[in-house]
Specification:
By secondary structure, this protein is of the alpha/beta class. It has one domain: Rossmann fold (3-Layer(aba) Sandwich), CATH 3.40.50. About 30% of the residues lie in helices and about 30% in strands. The protein is built from 5 helices and 8 strands; from the N terminus they run E-H-E-H-E-H-E-H-E-E-E-H-E. The strands form 2 sheets. Strands 3-2-4-5-6 form a 5-stranded parallel beta sheet, sandwiched between helices. Strand 4, helix 4 and strand 5 form a beta-alpha-beta unit. The protein is globular. The protein starts with a strand and ends with a strand. This is Bifunctional pyr operon transcriptional regulator/uracil phosphoribosyltransferase PyrR. Keywords: Glycosyltransferase, Transferase. It comes from Candidatus Syntrophosphaera thermopropionivorans. Its EC number is 2.4.2.9.
Length: about 180
């Protein structure tokens, strides 16, 4: 794959995540009853970073869970005949909580739909909000993020590649083409 452009570097990502944390506090009038659930894989480090910023700003720990949506995807048969399931890790009660689903990129909306289905198998939260680092458009389902780091209009041929140091060894957001 060829890098077409760099959308964010490490510093830009950190400033964006910090701003998103402030927006979450403002929109929720504090952080009472909030829990983050990162969609595996790159939603997880983003959720943890948002929780870290909330701890710095508000002085309270925010629970962070991990959601594996593999079996909830509507394109599962196209991905693999033997999908790798890493499992979900929700170490807190979601019943009645304000859940903020976190993912790196919002595209068609199908990942978010699958995540909501998976999350509801764990209980019924008071509400579900959505935070994404990048919204690239091209929605196929009526899903809109509550918190967006950056809107990046793309063509369908372009791919947004989000990298986190925890997984990929660097922090960056790039547009790549095959």
């Amino acid at each position: 794959m060829q890098v077409k452009s760099i959308i964010m570097d490490k510093d830009q990502m950190e400033r964006t995540i910090h701003r998103m944390a402030h927006e979450i506090i403002e929109q929720n009038r504090g952080i009472e009853n909030i829990c983050f659930v990162g969609i595996r894989t790159r939603g997880v480090p983003l959720a943890r970073r948002l929780a870290d910023y909330l701890r710095l700003i508000e002085g309270k720990d925010i629970p962070v869970g991990v959601l594996d949506i593999t079996l909830y995807r509507d394109d599962l048969s196209m991905i693999s005949h033997q999908p790798v399931i890493k499992g979900s890790e929700l170490g807190f009660e979601i019943e009645g909580a304000s859940i903020i689903l976190v993912d790196d990129v919002l595209y068609t909306g199908r990942t978010v739909r699958a995540a909501i289905d998976a999350l509801l198998d764990f209980g019924r939260p008071q509400q579900i909000q959505l935070a994404v680092l990048i919204d690239r458009g091209h929605r196929e389902l009526p899903i809109k993020a509550d918190y967006v780091g950056k809107n990046v209009p793309t063509s369908k041929e372009e791919i947004i590649k989000v990298s986190f140091a925890e997984i990929d060894g660097e922090d960056s957001v790039k547009i790549v083409v095959a």
